UniProtKB/TrEMBL annotation, chain A:
Protein name from the UniProt record: Iron complex transport system ATP-binding protein
Segments of this protein annotated with the region Disordered: 1-20
Gene Ontology MF, one: ATP hydrolysis activity
Coiled-coil intervals, chain numbering: none
UniProt domain ABC transporter: residue ranges: 22-258
Keywords carried by this UniProt record: ATP-binding, Cell membrane, Ion transport, Iron, Iron transport, Membrane, Nucleotide-binding, Transport
From TrEMBL, chain B:
GO BP annotations, alphabetical order: siderophore-iron import into cell
Family: Belongs to the binding-protein-dependent transport system permease family. FecCD subfamily.
Record-annotated membrane-spanning stretches: 41-60, 95-113, 125-144, 150-174, 186-205, 232-254, 275-297, 342-362
Bilayer topology term: Multi-pass membrane protein
Main location: membrane
Region spans: Disordered: 1-24
Record keywords, A-Z: Cell membrane, Membrane, Transmembrane, Transmembrane helix, Transport
One GO CC annotation: plasma membrane
Single GO term (MF): transmembrane transporter activity
PANTHER family hit by this protein: FERRIC ENTEROBACTIN TRANSPORT SYSTEM PERMEASE PROTEIN, FERRIC ENTEROBACTIN TRANSPORT SYSTEM PERMEASE PROTEIN FEPG
Protein name: Iron complex transport system permease protein
């Protein structure tokens, strides 16, 4: 890790103490002239499970895209294992950092087995297109996510929940330490949302993946993630454990929401019970 | 490198619909490994055999008919001198140009359609072949007239066509490029360029002398008449470079067909990969069109036929190329046998290819293109 320049205040760090795997340093993120995020700092430590929450349009997906090298910051930089991610070779990044875009599209007719196999792309070359390791990793990923039975089904014929499982299998087969997921539960009913988050949570707990996920549902975010990062208008408002972040004051500040926060009767994590929207 | 080759066949269980899906086969020799489906090998093989047989039948046809067996014997060097002259000098260039043009157009169509994720993205729709028409018609019509016309006339029709196709290809690339190429944008810009090129061609035709207009019209339809080794040789040489490049792009195409974000997440350098695919595809079309005119529909239809025959999620490159060759050679044979009057081959490729695609579309299970 490189030694950072002296700062006036420490950057918000998520996760237990440990090496910082992914960090944003004073990033300014913009689409053409429209600046979405400016001067944001964030550090994600090894083995952490972080959820980014915030109202629509707060820049959380934009931040995730920057962390995943899909968007180049106009100022500041993103560091992967201490190195500037913009300057690292694309393939090398793809072996360490995997990402699942919001509602990814699979080409018509592509089978689940083929989709998962594409996850091996960064490990393959023109001569070595399907090594024994590729085969083993793909089979294992499908068995682990329970998509083995779907192997020969076209992805576009699957239900939403099955499809998300297939995509997560692909990310697993990619074999990256870090995994970024952009709203993986969008368009899923509640039981499938739980199903997908259980799977992601197991990826973190059993496979030691460092996970960053953008989520809309605060209660699910509090239950599954170890750390929450709350954003509003491109600014990182709070970060910490769910208990630290999900306070009634924060809900008012970030979501314009008057709400009660009570312990989740199942997990004991904070649970948001909305009262009404506050007008500003 | 070890000498042992272990081929592991993995059979996949039938899907719930009861129809067994294609079996995937893995081949590993030392550090080299690849995986493919049986159908993706069988279809190109059958297409290759069809090209050879149709080509041989085509070589036998004419004022001096030669039996199929004698043609094949001549091709391997065992024919009489007279047969060799007729087959190799007089007739082979025509068939060779047909096969090579079909190969190039089929490949180019598959490349465009896959990376744009849009079956409409074919060189016919994107205006590249129309660009070639503008060049060729300008050379035919203006040749000798104005000073630029004299220049075009001096270039000759094939070179003018090549420049026209490359011009539109470059314009397409520049206009569609926005730190990467979006398939939809590419198709819309292509259609705009197509209209401009079409209007230019029409304008040139209205100004043309009647005999110039007639020969320009035959060129626009796409014809293999009176081809010599002069056209066939440069075409073969450029394909010797372009076809391996196109096939090498296959691996990255399998990832490019996902959305941009997914492709980049899988370690593809998007801009470079897309740029390389477009350049190769435009060069394939330009060389093909320069040799035989814009033979219609091959690049649009053949990849879609190929993907339905070979299975998989994208038009297979090799199968598209070989089926394109079979279609053009077969259509050329048909114009000279069944039909009472020899038509330009371009009329028949559209007339044959389109109904076959419609049949596959109506019959097929695939709901999307």
């Amino acid at each position: 890790m490189t030694t950072a320049a002296p700062r006036t205040r420490p950057a918000p760090t998520t996760g237990p103490d440990g090496p910082v795997r992914l960090a944003a340093e004073g990033v300014r993120l913009a689409y053409d002239d429209r600046v979405v995020v400016d001067g944001l700092d964030l550090r994600l430590t090894d083995g952490s499970f972080t959820a980014i929450v915030g109202p629509n349009g707060c820049g959380k997906s934009t931040l995730l895209r920057a962390l995943g090298r899909l968007l180049r910051p106009q100022a500041g930089q993103v560091l992967l294992d201490g190195r500037s991610i913009a300057r690292a070779p694309t393939r090398e990044v793809a072996r360490v950092l995997g990402l699942l875009p919001q509602t990814p599209v699979a080409p018509a007719g592509l089978t689940v087995a083929d989709l998962v196999a594409r996850g091996r792309h960064p490990h393959q070359s023109w001569l070595q297109q399907w090594s024994t390791q590729d085969e083993a990793v793909v089979a294992e990923a499908m068995a682990w996510t329970g998509t083995g039975d779907l192997a020969d089904r076209p992805v576009d014929e699957l239900s939403g929940g099955q499809r998300q499982r297939a995509w997560i299998s692909m990310a697993l087969a990619q074999g990256t330490d870090l995994l970024l997921l952009d709203e993986p539960t969008t368009y899923l009913d509640l039981s499938h949302q739980i199903d997908v988050l259980e799977l992601v949570s197991r990826l973190h707990a059993e496979r030691g993946r460092t996970v960053v996920v953008v989520l809309h549902d605060l209660n699910l975010a509090a239950r599954y993630a170890q750390r929450l990062v709350a954003m509003r208008d491109g600014v990182l408002v709070a970060s910490g454990t769910p208990h630290e972040v999900l306070t009634e004051q924060l809900l008012a500040d970030v979501f314009d929401l008057e709400a009660r926060v009570v312990p989740d009767p199942v997990a004991g994590t904070p649970m948001v019970v909305p009262v009404r929207r506050l007008r500003r | 490198m070890t000498a042992t080759a272990d081929a592991v066949a993995r059979t996949t269980p039938p899907d719930p619909g009861g129809r067994p899906r294609g079996r995937a086969v893995t081949v590993r020799v030392g550090p080299v490994s690849a995986r493919f489906r049986w159908r993706s090998v069988v279809v190109p093989l059958v297409a290759a055999v069809a090209v050879v047989l149709l080509g041989a039948a085509s070589l036998g046809r004419g004022d001096y008919p030669i039996a199929l067996g004698d043609v094949l014997r001549t091709l391997v060097g065992a024919g009489t001198e007279g047969q060799a002259f007729v087959v190799l000098e007089l007739r082979a260039p025509r068939t060779a140009v047909g096969a090579l043009v079909g190969l190039a157009l089929g490949l180019a169509g598959a490349l465009f359609q896959t990376f744009a994720r849009n079956p409409l993205a074919s060189p016919d729709v994107l205006g590249i072949t129309q660009g070639a028409s503008v060049g060729a018609v300008a050379a035919i019509v203006l040749g000798g007239g104005t000073s630029t016309g004299a220049l075009l006339g001096g270039l000759g029709v094939p070179l003018a066509a090549l420049l026209g196709a490359l011009g539109v290809g470059a314009l397409l690339f520049v206009l569609a490029w926005r730190s990467g190429i979006d398939g939809y944008r590419l198709v819309l810009i292509g259609i705009a360029l197509w209209s401009v090129a079409q209007a230019l061609t029409d304008w040139l035709l209205t100004r043309a002398e009647i005999h110039d207009a007639a020969s320009a019209y035959v060129w626009i339809t796409g014809s293999l008449n009176a081809r010599t080794w002069e056209q066939a040789a440069p075409l073969a040489l450029s394909l010797l470079v372009l076809v391996p490049l196109a096939l090498a792009a296959g691996r990255v195409l399998g990832v490019l067909q996902f959305g941009d974000d997914t492709a980049r997440g899988l370690g593809v350098r998007l801009a470079r990969a897309q740029g390389a695919v477009v350049v190769v595809a435009v060069l394939l079309v330009a060389t093909a069109v320069a040799a035989a005119g814009p033979i219609a529909f091959v690049a649009l239809v053949v990849p879609q036929v190929a993907v339905r025959l070979a299975g998989g999620s994208r038009p297979p490159l090799l199968a598209s190329g070989l089926l394109g060759a079979a279609l053009v050679v077969g259509a050329d044979l048909l114009t000279r046998t069944v039909l009472p009057q020899a038509l330009p081959v371009g009329i028949l490729t559209a007339a044959l290819g389109a109904p076959y695609l419609l049949w596959l579309l109506v019959r097929g299970r695939r709901t999307t293109a």
